[in-house]
Structure formats: C-alpha cells, structure tokens
C-alpha cells in the first residue's frame, strides 16, 4: 500500500493509522527524512510517531552517503523482500514522487558520476544561484528544461550532473517500460483544499522555528554544500546567516518555497495513474482505504 501526497497533508498520521490497522510496518519514500543529520527541517516523524509503528528509511543514512532514486529502488526492494516474509501488507509513504516511481516501476541504472562533477555544480549553484542553474540546463539539457522540475534546485543539479557525466538527459533514464514487481500496490493520494494545505504549511514552518530549526540549520553550516542540504528549510536560513535575509524574511521564504514545493508535488501525483484520491481531513481514513481496496479488487 502506498500513501502519497504533498508535504503537510498528513501522510505520516495516515500511514501510522493504516499500519496499526494492518499490524504492519512503514517504509518511507522521502528523499530527505532518510538523513540522520536532518530532523526538524525535514519534518521527520517524532519519537512518539516512530514508536507508534516501526519505520524504515528514516534516519538510516548520512548526508555524506550518495542517495538517489535508483539507489532507493535497490534499497527498498531488498528491504521489502525481507519484510513481506513477516507481513502480508507493507505501508509505503512519502512525497518524493520519483522515489515512489522507482519503487513501483523501476529506474534504468545510471552510470556512476564522478563526485567532482557534483561538487563543482553545487559550488557554482551556491555562488550563482538558481538562474545560473536554469541557464545551464536550458543550454545542456533542453529536454529536462522543458519537462523537468525546474523549480527544484536539488532535482535540477542532479539533472545537470547526469547530463555532464553521461551525455544523456536524466529523463531518458525514466522513459523505459515498467519493471515487473513481486507485489501488488494500492496507491492512495491524500489531498486537502489548497487554502487549507497552504495554511498548514505556514503553521508547520512556524512550529519548526519554535522547535529549534534555526539552531539545527546553524549546526549544519559546515555541511551546507552537500547535496542533502540543497533544500527548502535550510537554504533560506543559510542566506539569513550570511546576512542576505532577515530572520523574518527567511521564515516567509521557507513558507513560500514550501508552498511551491507542495504545488509541484501535487502536479506530479495528479499525472500518475491508478491513484485513489482521498480527503486527508476525514476523521477516520482507514474505512476509505478499505473501500479503495475493494474497488481495486473489482477492477
């Protein structure tokens, strides 16, 4: 069972509810919550939530480890082969669409890219900004420029890295036929009215600041050039530490960029077929999931 949707929609609570109902475990498909150095800024499940249901791919890797969709596919499939021995149902949850796509459909293997290419791109981005990144992709990878996530610096840098390292667009590695899987998947999409979702995002960012996001970001300053830190919630505070933004402006920018990210997530998931969309505000969502299971079985 897959539970997908934008940030702040309530995926973690729904996944725990489903995992408890089916007496099973949760596999995360979040590209940032896997890093043990990142906590508040990636909305990692709380200690209480982690106790409520066993979680995998949470704080399982270091920011110094290489992680991408293709590596996640290998990691997740190996883990699922072990977990399905004990559990007939596994709950996979996350908002990283490409990771879920890799899990369900597979990715073509991408040749290893020299780390120096990644380091050069990240350093240039940190100096020249997203406009430079857009210009580089328009010139070197027009396919990604036209169809890729052109407001997501992490995805954009990965695309440029692949193009410079292999001579092919990253999108070429995502176009092949779906791979056979040893499991069936029911895919649930969670959504809320846009105004409600955006308000939840704004409130979550304020809560993160109250929980100590600024202190966490400051402790990560020495790692600011690593791939995992090229993301919303940290980059804005790094600009604040550099004197480029006030604290108030940095918080507002985190809220704005998170709303934009949620919009991109929704755009991605709405393009996917076979998602059963449910209202995340419903007080009891498991009965709706059971109805979706019955509908899938009919088809």
Write up what this structure looks like.
The protein is an alpha/beta fold and 299 residues long. It has 2 domains: 2-108 and 176-298, 3-Layer(aba) Sandwich (Rossmann fold); 115-174, Orthogonal Bundle (Histone, subunit A). Helices cover 53% and strands 7% of the residues. It is built from 13 helices and 6 strands. Strands 3-2-4-1-5-6 form a 6-stranded parallel sheet, with helices on both faces. Strand 2 (26-28), helix 2 and strand 3 (55-56) form a beta-alpha-beta unit. Helix 3 crosses helix 4. The longest helix is centred in the last third of the chain and has 24 residues, at 247-270. The chain is globular. The mean pLDDT is 93. Keywords: ATP-binding, Magnesium, Nucleotide-binding, Transferase, tRNA processing. It is an enzyme of class 2 (transferase). Its EC number is 2.5.1.75.
> What is the name of the CATH class of the largest domain?
Alpha Beta
Which CATH architecture of the largest domain?
3-Layer(aba) Sandwich
Overall pLDDT confidence: 93
- Helices and strands: which structural class? alpha/beta
Distance between the termini: 16 Å
CA-based shape: globular
CA gyration radius, whole angstroms: 19 Å
The ordered H/E elements are EHEHEHEHHHHHEHHHHEH
Number of structural units classed as domains: 2
The counted number of beta strands is 6
Into which percent range does the helicity of residues fall? 40-55%
Largest sheet: 6 strands, parallel
Could you please say which CATH topology of the largest domain applies here?
Rossmann fold
Portion in beta strands: 5-15%
CATH superfamily of the largest domain: P-loop containing nucleotide triphosphate hydrolases
Q: With helices defined by DSSP (H or I, 4 residues minimum), what is the helix count? A: 13
- Low-pLDDT ranges: none
Query: Strand arrangement, largest sheet?
Result: 3-2-4-1-5-6
